[in-house]
Design goal:
Elements: H1 30-46, H2 49-55, H3 58-70, E1 77-80, H4 83-91, E2 102-106, H5 111-118, E3 126-130, H6 133-139, E4 144-150, H7 162-172, E5 175-179, H8 191-194, E6 198-202, E7 214-218, H9 220-223, H10 262-268, H11 272-279, E8 288-289, H12 312-319, E9 320-321, H13 331-337, H14 362-368
Parallel strand pairs: 2-3, 2-4, 4-5, 5-6
Antiparallel strand pairs: 1-7, 6-7, 8-9
Helix pairs in contact: 1-10, 3-11, 4-5
The structure holds pyridoxal-5'-phosphate.
Pyridoxal-5'-phosphate binds at residues 82-84, 110, 112, 150, 154, 179, 181-182, 202, 214.
Length: 369
C-alpha cells in the first residue's frame, strides 16, 4: 500500500506550515485549485453548454464520489450547501404528530444541528436534550421519531457508539440522523453497515474540499417513501419539463433543491483518495495523543477544553508524542512531523478571525520560535 506520507506534496501549505487544524478547515489539496480553475474555464469557454456537459449532475455525481469514503452506495447521496440545509431537508419529510413527535439528542451536538432541531418545537415537536450517549439510549422510546447523533463529537473528539444507538432507535421505531462531519475522511465510517437512516457531513474538514459542499445520505429503501417539503426543481423527475406540480425523482435526487453550487462541488472531492486512505487508518511513523481516550473512542479533534488560551499549534506540540509503530492523530499533522520540520506559520485558529479580533504578532512569533 502507498504510504500516507506520499500524499504530502498534494497539500501546498505543508511546504511552510505545520497544519494542525483540519477539524476546522482542512488543508487545501492542489486538486481543489485545479477544480476551481476548470470550473472557471468551462464557464468562460462553454457558457450555457456547461450545464449539459456535467454541471447539472454535480449534485449526485460528487455525492457518489464521496459515498466511496463513507460507505454509501451510488445513488444514495445528494450534495447541498451545508449540514444545516441537509438536515432541514430531512426534517421537512416529517410531521410531528403525537404519539410519535419526539426528537432526542445529546447536548454535545453541533450548534447547526441543535438550533435546527430546537426550532421544530414551533412545528409541534417534543424536543428532549440529554447529557450524553448513555442518556440518549435511555431517552429513546416509542414516542421518538428522530435521533440526531454525531459520530465524532465536535468538542471532545469522542467517537460515539453509533451501532448501539441505531439498534435502540430501530427497536423503538425511531430514525437516526448521523452527523459525520468530524469523522468522514478521518476515521473508518460505513453508513450502510451502520444501518443509519440518514447521514450528513461536509467537505470543509477532513475531506479537504473547502466550504460550500455538504452531503446527505438517505437509506435507499427509505428514500422512496419520503417526500421532502423543502424541495426544488432539481428534485423533479423531469426538471427541464418545468411542470406545474412536483413529481419526485427517484433515489437521492428527490432530496435535492435548486441550482447546484457548482464551484464548491468541483473542489469538494479533490482530496478523496487521501481522505479515504487516511480514514482507513494509514500509518506514518505512528503516533498517538498524549492523553488518549478509552481505546477505540478517539476521533481526530484535540480536546480543547480548559486550554483555550494556548495557540493550537503549540497545544498540539505539547500534547502529542510519537512512539514508533503506534496509530496516529490527524494525518496532516503527521505529514509535517514526518519530515521533522519545525513548527511555524499561523496554525492558531484565532488568526482566521476578522482582523479586528486578531491578537497579532506575539502569538505568531511564538509559533516561529
Ligand atoms: C459535527 C459538526 N457538524 C456540523 C458542522 C457544520 O455545520 P454546517 O455545515 O451547518 O455549517 C460542524 C462544523 O464544525 C461540525 O463539527
Amino acid at each position: 500500500m502507498q504510504p500516507l506520507e506520499s500524499y504530502r506534496d498534494r497539500f501546498p501549505i505543508l511546504e511552510h506550515t505545520t497544519y494542525l487544524i483540519n477539524h476546522s478547515l482542512g488543508a487545501m489539496p492542489v486538486g481543489a485549485e485545479e477544480g476551481l480553475l476548470r470550473y472557471a474555464r468551462e464557464w468562460r469557454e462553454r457558457g450555457v453548454r456547461a450545464w449539459a456537459e456535467g454541471w447539472w449532475e454535480t449534485s449526485t455525481a460528487v455525492g457518489d464520489q464521496l459515498g466511496r469514503i463513507v460507505g454509501a452506495a451510488p445513488g444514495t447521496m445528494a450534495m447541498h450547501q451545508n449540514v444545516a440545509v441537509a438536515q432541514a431537508i430531512v426534517l421537512s419529510c416529517f410531521e410531528f404528530e403525537p404519539p410519535r413527535s419526539r426528537i432526542v439528542y445529546g447536548e454535545g451536538e453541533f450548534p447547526s444541528v441543535r438550533y435546527l432541531y430546537q426550532a421544530q418545537r414551533r412545528r409541534g415537536a417534543d424536543v428532549e436534550i440529554v447529557a450524553d450517549e448513555a442518556a440518549v439510549l435511555e431517552a429513546i422510546d416509542e414516542r421518538t421519531l428522530l435521533v440526531p447523533i454525531s459520530h465524532v463529537l465536535f468538542k471532545t473528539g469522542e467517537i460515539q457508539d453509533v451501532k448501539a444507538i441505531v439498534q435502540r432507535a430501530h427497536e423503538a421505531g425511531a430514525l437516526i440522523v448521523l452527523d459525520a462531519y468530524q469523522s468522514a475522511g478521518s476515521v473508518p465510517l460505513d453508513v450502510t453497515s451502520l444501518g443509519v437512516d440518514f447521514a450528513v457531513g461536509g467537505s470543509v474538514k477532513w475531506l479537504c474540499g473547502g466550504p460550500g459542499a455538504g452531503w446527505l445520505y438517505i437509506r435507499p429503501d427509505l428514500a422512496e417513501r419520503l417526500e421532502p417539503t423543502f424541495t426544488g426543481w432539481q428534485a423533479h423527475a423531469r426538471p427541464f419539463a418545468f411542470e406545474p406540480e412536483q413529481d419526485y425523482a427517484e433515489g437521492a435526487a428527490r432530496f435535492l433543491t435548486g441550482t447546484p453550487n457548482v464551484p464548491a462541488l468541483y473542489a469538494a472531492t479533490a482530496a478523496d483518495g487521501t481522505a479515504g486512505r487516511a480514514a482507513r487508518g494509514g500509518r506514518l511513523r505512528g503516533a498517538e495523543p498524549a492523553r488518549p481516550r478509552a481505546p477505540g473512542r478517539h476521533g481526530r479533534r484535540p480536546d480543547s477544553r480548559g486550554r483555550g488560551r494556548l495557540p493550537r499549534a503549540r497545544r498540539a506540540r505539547d500534547h502529542l508524542r510519537f512512539p514508533a509503530g503506534r496509530r496516529h492523530p490527524p494525518w496532516p499533522t503527521l505529514l509535517q512531523h514526518g519530515r521533522r520540520a519545525p513548527l511555524r506559520g499561523y496554525s492558531d485558529s484565532r488568526d482566521h478571525r476578522h482582523p479586528r479580533l486578531r491578537t497579532p504578532s506575539r502569538r505568531g512569533r511564538e509559533l516561529d520560535d
